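hey so u asked for the seq, here:
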Amino acid sequence: MALISGTSELPKHNKTIKVDARTWTQLNDIKKGNESFDDVLQKLLNQRTQNASTENFGLIRYRRKTAFIELEENINIQTSGRYLGIEFEYNDIKSEKEKFTIDLRIKKIFYGKRGYNPSIFFGVDHEHKHISEKYLEIYFRCILQVLKKEFGITESWVNNNLFNIVYWKKLYSTYYLSMDSFSNDIEDVLALSEEEKPTMDQQKNMSESTCNLIGLHK
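ran it, structure tokens below
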């Protein structure tokens, strides 16, 4: 076995890795001039990343679709006789039932006489939707709407258990839906809702948000 020592500028710590002698020879043959082993490894890693991006680009180049739903009274998001309208967009997935990601994003919330940017309405942006339980609830209801519209799937046992990953897994498995979607659109989001807690600033923004002022935040 051979030892390769590398450096990292931020912070400047030396690390040592063990490689087979044949691997060391191959890396040494690649080196040019005053290049270090670290330079060689960085170039190989960058090349791998670029290749992966090129390969995945064709897989994730979806057309985007826009949809609208009005949340019904029995969903318990009714205030003074007014309902929420949700405009959202997602990947056009109908022809790819076993291999897709939804990548759903809420574009606008309609309430009363106004339309709201989601970050204003909920007090958090799309990337932090998991911090707001109400944002997350509406996000999952939109996911269910996509599955209903694109694949004709309607299951009340999921609708009543939006934050339970077991029901989502059952739904995806029963209908042979994409596990990429399950992982990215459902599992990762639920995991973040458990792992990441709101900062003081985020708590303040949510408390002052329209969603909270009309009584939707718990």
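The first strand starts at residue 2 and ends at 8. The radius of gyration is 24 Å.
lmk if thats what u needed
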